TrEMBL record:
Domain PilZ: start-end pairs: 10-90
Protein species of origin: hydrothermal vent metagenome
Entry-linked Pfam families: PilZ
Name this polypeptide is given: PilZ domain-containing protein
Gene3D superfamilies to which the protein is assigned, alphabetical: predicted glycosyltransferase like domains
GO molecular function, one term: cyclic-di-GMP binding
InterPro entries assigned to the protein according to its UniProt record, in alphabetical order: PilZ_domain (IPR009875)
């Protein structure tokens, strides 16, 4: 996947951090593996094998087996979805986050 294919107009007010975090997405009857590729305090960008519609709400679960970080669940409202190669890039707004996420996000520059 080329960098050009993932470039978007920057609409976030916060700094977007590049990541590569394995995650699991849950929504009603769907549970699929995803990859979080960028993160800000208010939003998340991830790659998914299936598309989602704008406005849909999903849970993104992050767990860190090799680090002493509690699993994190983010409730995300999908803002955009576009096909990139053989998968979908989805951008969303975090509508519910935990204290664990706040601590994790603050530590990202030190971890990655």
């Amino acid at each position: 996947m080329s960098d050009n294919q993932l470039q978007t107009d920057e609409r976030r007010q916060e700094t977007r951090l590049e990541t590569y975090l394995e995650s699991v997405l849950e929504q009603k009857e769907h549970t699929i593996y995803t990859t979080v590729i960028n993160l800000s305090e208010q939003g998340v960008g991830f790659l998914s094998a299936r598309p989602f519609k704008k406005g849909e709400v999903v849970n993104i679960n992050l767990s860190f087996h090799k680090q002493n970080i509690e699993p994190i669940t983010l409730k995300v409202r999908v803002q955009s979805c576009r096909e990139v190669d053989l998968e979908y890039y989805i951008g969303g707004v975090i509508i519910s986050k935990t204290d664990e996420f706040e601590r994790f996000y603050a530590a990202i520059p030190q971890v990655y």
